[in-house]
Design brief:
The complex is a heterodimer of chains A (309) and B (310).
Chain A lengths: L13 E2 L3 H7 L2 E4 L6 E2 L2 E2 L3 H10 L3 E6 L6 H10 L9 E3 H11 L7 E5 L2 H9 L3 E4 L22 E6 L7 H13 L4 E4 L5 E5 L2 E4 L1 H12 L4 E2 L6 H10 L6 E5 L2 H11 L2 E5 L6 H5 L9 E3 L4 H9 L1
Parallel strand pairs in A: 1-16, 2-5, 2-14, 5-6, 7-8, 7-9, 9-10, 10-13, 14-15, 15-16
Antiparallel strand pairs in A: 3-4, 11-12
Helix pairs in contact in A: 4-5, 6-7
Chain B lengths: L14 E2 L2 H10 L2 E4 L6 E2 L2 E2 L3 H10 L3 E6 L6 H10 L9 E3 H11 L7 E5 L2 H9 L3 E4 L22 E6 L7 H13 L4 E4 L5 E2 L7 E2 L1 H12 L4 E2 L6 H10 L6 E5 L2 H11 L2 E5 L6 H5 L9 E3 L4 H5 L3
Parallel strand pairs in B: 1-16, 2-5, 2-14, 5-6, 7-8, 7-9, 9-10, 10-13, 14-15, 15-16
Antiparallel strand pairs in B: 3-4, 11-12
Helix pairs in contact in B: 4-5, 6-7
The chains are: A alpha/beta (309), B alpha/beta (310).
Keywords (chain A): Hydrolase
Family (chain A): Belongs to the HAD-like hydrolase superfamily.
Catalytic activity (chain A): 2-phosphoglycolate + H2O = glycolate + phosphate
């Protein structure tokens, strides 16, 4: 029964055979979203019943996603549209993490934030009371590299936040680069560095790691990452909800973000194969990240329940 | 007097170019390799004194070669740019990273029935076509936009066997996604970078993000490192040595960037001269964190003319 180890263990992941034991041993479940709860805009089978079951057992549910395109409020709406009752306060997107990070370091309110990213980041910055520039509207801006042309940039920008950005262009790269290179003490913050993301259920799409890589290339600086696998969000919600990390199980589909996040944070970890990771990737000799357990999808929790009834 | 043995990791401080050492330099060198952005021109403006200096060097029998990491133009287009600026430089004297990318594929026997996806400008596309390869992307994909609907698949050509990434002021998500899919899903697909310069003087008034940005983006989405054909990689040097029958110890590399131009010269055993007319300032050169010391430094190329009292 006992015997879960939560340190970065090299022992191979175990198939989840006794879900009830796992469920009984933790107080909080943290779920990734893409590939765990939904794929693109489609709910994964059995998710509503599984979440209901966990709630009925008194478990706290938290949703932590690296996807920065929406704010918590907008994610709340997505959950609602899919028929799940999840409140805003249970959702932690990397867009929120960026704003929370700036708050935690007392980023001065008279400084501005330049955003290479989408609406979610802008909304969260606004909610947190920060002034921002950039975002999707700079996606329309063009530059002409001709004699006498100078791009001006706001000297009051004290941080550049970079995340997934489908409206990425050279104007934004230059603006962000000038701020980081020329404004003294300017911070370079990345919401996340995922190489690819499942924007649609059918295929992978270049992720936030791409935009962040671009700015690393032009500034020769490394960013402060607030999303998984950085433990910033884990530490934040442990404090917010007053929970012990050993009482948490992180459930995700990606080894180098979700599972590493859980391990770095000292939690139990469960990999689901309903997203980007296959069993052969998990078992490949090239893979050194072993979750405590793995299973096909989260509704496998229900199968055990049925068995023990 | 024989110059000191070139040591790629030498940290002896750079010497300021003077009348005396300029004369020594000229006598000990048969060829000058010049970077372009920040050395010959800034954006589309010629730097002062260039025409006279190049003429003087030619009149003394020195071979001139122009080696640029800027992949936006082909060699022919660069020859035209030189001509427009009043300088007579032939195509054969120019080695652009666009040309290097095409030559890399040729030298490595890239099958002509495979295609090349280009994240970059017309220069790369032209050089690939001149070398007999089929190029996709480049300027054609500037206006393309990706769609995100559940039943809509972003298609990519399965015959793409290499993705070449260079400076692209028209970078967009469509190109990032196309290149990413080719590298991640087409078996054996090569990832080639023309160069990785972080910034450069694309206009006369300020620095702009360089190819290092676009290459960084593709590294980020593919988790792979590229083969780099431009400076400081020695690929272009090997090419021009074959062409011109020169000894690297009788060559001087003149550039404005330490981690590409000067390192390029040092890696090959050339003498190196840093000019401060581009991206590198005196304080960057002198900063303790800088480990790359050229043999000499001076404000701009035309100082050579001035110091020799020509």
């Amino acid at each position: 029964m006992e015997g879960f180890t939560t340190t970065t263990t090299k022992a191979s992941a175990q198939p989840l055979e006794n879900a009830d034991v796992l469920i009984a041993s933790v107080e909080t479940f943290i779920f990734d979203c893409d590939g765990v709860i939904w794929k693109g805009d489609k709910l994964i089978d059995g998710v509503p019943e599984t979440l209901d079951m966990l709630r009925s057992k008194g478990k706290r549910l938290v949703f932590v996603t690296n996807n920065s395109t929406k704010s918590r409020k907008q994610y709340g709406k997505k959950f609602e549209t899919l028929g799940l009752s999840v409140s805003e306060e249970e959702i932690f997107a990397s867009s929120f993490a960026a704003a929370a990070y700036l708050k935690s370091i007392n980023f001065p309110k008279d400084k501005k934030v330049y955003v290479i990213g989408e609406d979610g980041i802008l909304k969260e910055l606004e909610l947190a009371g920060f002034q921002y520039l950039g975002g999707p509207e700079d996606g329309e801006k063009k530059i002409e590299l001709k004699p006498g042309f100078l791009m001006e940039h706001d000297k009051d920008v004290g941080a550049v936040v970079v995340g997934f950005d489908r409206y990425f262009n050279y104007y934004k790269v230059q603006y962000g680069t000038l701020c980081i290179r020329e404004n003294p003490g300017c911070l370079f913050i990345a919401t996340n560095r995922d190489a690819v993301t499942h924007l649609t259920d059918a295929q992978e799409w270049a992720g936030g790691g791409s935009m962040v890589g671009a700015i690393c290339g032009s500034t020769q600086r490394e960013p402060h990452v607030v999303g998984k696998p950085s433990t910033f969000m884990m530490d934040y919600l442990a404090v917010k909800f007053g929970i012990l990390k050993s009482q948490i199980c992180m459930v995700g589909d990606r080894l180098d973000t979700d599972i590493l996040f859980g391990q770095n944070g000292g939690c139990k970890t469960l990999l689901v194969l309903s997203g980007v990771t296959t069993l052969s990737m998990l078992q490949s000799p090239n893979n050194s990240i072993q979750p405590d357990f793995y299973t096909n999808k989260i509704s496998d929790f229900l199968a055990s329940k049925a068995a023990t009834v | 007097m024989e110059s000191t043995t070139p040591n790629p990791t030498s940290t002896a401080a750079a010497e300021l170019l003077t009348g005396a050492n300029a004369k020594l330099l000229l006598d000990s060198v048969d060829a000058f390799l010049f970077d372009c952005d920040g050395v010959i021109w800034k954006g589309d403006k010629l730097i002062d004194g260039i025409p006279e200096t190049l003429e003087m060097l030619r009149s003394k029998g020195k071979k001139l070669v122009f080696v640029t990491n800027n992949s936006t133009k082909s060699r022919i287009q660069y020859a035209n740019k030189f001509r427009t600026l009043g300088l007579s430089v032939s195509q054969d004297e120019i080695f652009s990273s666009s040309f290097a990318a095409a030559m890399y594929l040729k030298v490595n026997q890239f099958p002509p029935q495979k295609k090349v996806y280009v994240i970059g400008g017309e220069g790369i596309v032209q050089e690939l076509q001149l070398a007999g390869f089929t190029a996709l992307g480049g300027p054609e994909d500037v206006e393309k936009r990706a769609q995100w609907k559940s039943n809509c698949l972003f298609e990519h050509d399965k015959d793409v066997g290499a993705v070449v990434v260079g400076l692209d002021p028209d970078i967009n998500y469509y190109k990032l996604q196309y290149g990413t899919l080719c590298i991640r899903e087409n078996p054996g697909c090569l990832f080639i970078a023309t160069n990785r310069d972080s910034v450069g003087h694309m206009t006369d008034l300020q620095e702009w993000p360089g190819a290092g940005c676009m290459v960084g983006a593709i590294c980020g989405s593919t988790e792979r490192e590229p083969v780099v054909v431009g400076k400081p990689s020695t690929f272009m040097m090997e090419f021009l040595l074959q062409k011109f029958n020169l000894s690297t110890s009788r060559m001087c590399m003149v550039g404005d960037r330490l981690d590409t131009d000067i390192l390029f010269g040092q890696n090959a055993g050339c003498k190196t001269l840093l000019v401060l007319s581009g991206v590198t300032t005196r304080s960057i050169l002198d900063d303790p964190s800088n480990k790359i010391q050229p043999d000499y430094y001076t404000n701009k190329v035309s100082d050579i003319l001035g110091l020799l009292g020509e």
